[in-house]
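dumping this here before i forget
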Amino acid sequence: MLIQRSSVSVMYKRIDGIKKAYYNSEGILKRYFGEATVLPVPDDAPAEIPRIVVKTLHEHAQLNISLEAATFEVVYDAGYERDWNLCVHYIEERMQSVFEFLNLLTGNCYEYIGIISNIIFDELDEDGVKKLSGTLLNMKQIRQPYDISVKYTFVEEENIFINLTLQNIRKYKDDINAGEAGAFSAENQIAEAVGAVIDINDRYGFNNDVNYKSDSQKLGTLLTCMNSIVNSKLYDLLERGEYC
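structure:
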């Protein structure tokens, strides 16, 4: 299993003056983050455009802060890409500092929080199309497809969306020229895999409850769900077509 990246998103009500607020409290982030880049964005620009960008000290991750959201994006390497427990620890440590900063501005009151992880199952003994069609789809009356993408959405704990997207992936030689005819021929293909995008958030609660509020503790709940999916539920789905 190859863990490529994760992204944590925190949605809150609009905070005007976010740049000034950052300068007043930036010391909170210094343990894990470097100097911020404050972007020259006009005050009347769309609220979703980041105003502040901060990279972690070793530049494995980046925090983007806008007037209505903060997004923490991580790309894994140095052994983390093969160890989900290390990934979780990395996220938890840095997001603790992020929430310590944001809570000063929001009173620990958020609209909803989400985490997305991209994973590749690169240890398959058959091609990705056959794996997905054989386990998840009744293909008896359908001719063999070239590609398959399957999405499931579940609701758990009354307010959490769990979105699972599975699709086949083909790996090709590193030296191919994608602009040349035949670049993606079978001769240039070196491996098959299945990719998974796991998107977990509490937007179901936000969408359906007029009084819904999230808080920083919700990330722990989302990570617990993610742990269960990465460590067992995805394998059960791929190998037996079961998700419980």
